[in-house]
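Hi both,

Apologies for the delay on this - the queue was longer than expected. I finally got the pyridoxal-5'-phosphate-bound model through. Below you'll find the protein sequence and the ligand SMILES exactly as submitted, and right after that the structure tokens for the full complex including the ligand.
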Amino acid sequence: MPDDAPFPPPRLGEPYLLTPGPLTSAAAVKVAMLRDWGSWDGDFRAMTRELRTGVLALLGSGGAAYDCVPMQGSGSYLVEAMIGTLLPRDGKLLVLANGAYGLRAAETTRRIGRAVTVLDKGDYRPPRGDEVARILAQDPDITHVLAIHCETSSGILNPVAEIADAVAAAGRKLLIDSMSAFGALSLAPSEVPFEAFVSSANKCIEGVPGFGFLVARRDALRAAEGRAHSLALDAHAQWAYMEKTGQWRFTPPTHVVAAFLEALRMHRAEGGVAGRGARYARNRDVLVAGMRGLGFATLLPDRWMSPIIVTFFCPADPRFHFARFYEAMKARGFILYPGKLTAVDSFRIGCIGHIDDAVMRAVVAAVDDALTEMGVTSAAPPEAALAERSLAETL
Ligand SMILES: *Cc1c(COP(=O)(O)O)cnc(C)c1O
């Protein structure tokens, strides 16, 4: 077994991925993939069982009513499977959007021909419980609400607890895209009542990409037979077949499952959700303090900042060019997460993956170095960014 402790420097040719999945995975997670498994064989069926119970064990109190259905594909496949399987054909979904993933969920619902309405809060404003309550009171046709736990496009941590309370008080059902949060932020059904959520192997559990999982109330899964729009994305069919045979319906990503089980073991060894969340919060705090020290400003005020990924405004200095900055950071061993989010240019740095605060200090030093190389003397954002920022402060 390779030695993963503490956090090794990047090996030559393998930079740290400061991206929200795929991300930097531990050597032991990669090594776990170095053999083959037969998908029908008892050994792999035991691995599938371990995966499902391992995910459910992270739920905390109130989790006994839920089951875990892993499915092949990236996170978006799971979002589509959840909506197509759990939203009745005559149901109506309210999507709470404040970024790319919320908008994608709404588009997914439209594409599969289900009724959908969207509360679009723009790029970074959080949907609040009282707004949700108002919309639900006005539209009795809405049966389900979909919230994004951490909207990875800005890094905002949405207030899912107050949203869940509003949805439950109105007698509707809550679906959560917890793709980039589950495993690092608690999601106990006793605190946040939900019908189902989805996440994937390559985010806070720190596995590699290849499958995701739906965690849903068993009664909701039972009621969903024959409802899905798609054969491959029918989560009820996958669940029923897995319950009966212990197997996945179609070819499973065997190696990815093996990597995931190792990642789950490391997650447990770190102290579970609390331990993982604490390391990510330290990563974020070191990163944000260091970047602010260099003169950078964050898009979000501290109150809404997740420990998953942080958005920084690009400096106003005309010598700053993001493409050059990206290459300069890559040359120093760090891959950033680009993306134009608001009217003002910004970039994102992920805090998740097999990295610690020492890595984050090295990131800040590399940023300082890269700015010097580019001749950038101030990392301060343009006035327009500060105007946006003060708008965000008033949320
Ligand atoms: C990663 C992610 C997804 C899924 O994206 P894929 O590229 O399909 O894996 C969905 N929602 C959120 C919030 C995410 O962070």
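Main takeaway for now: Residues 27-268 form a domain with the Aspartate Aminotransferase; domain 2 fold (CATH 3.40.640.10).

I'll put the files on the shared drive as well.

H.
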